[in-house]
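This part of the workshop introduces the protein records we will be handling. A record pairs a protein's sequence with a compact description of its fold. Comparing a sequence with its tokens is the quickest way to learn the format. To make this concrete, we reproduce a full record directly below:
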Amino acid sequence: MEYKDPMYELLSNLEQIVFKDKQQTMALNDKPNAFSEFEQLRKSTGLKIDDFARAMGVSVSMVQEWESKRLRPSNTELKLMRLMQANPTISKQLME
């Protein structure tokens, strides 16, 4: 039996709920790379870097590493960013 990360599964299910009305017909090759997607998602939240880091559960230096393109956000982190973008109240709840 294949092990599945419970956090990844939870975020995948939440993403399906949030984006249920939007068509997800993009081919795997057509998806933007993690760096360009991160830039778009980060800017669209409108959060300051320290608030964004707190909502993501990472350090400010980690966000700076993503922004400088030295490190790539994981798929799970990207899913959380998409959820925060789709529903801004999620980021406020995550910061509490």
Summary: Residues 6-18 form the longest helix (13 residues).
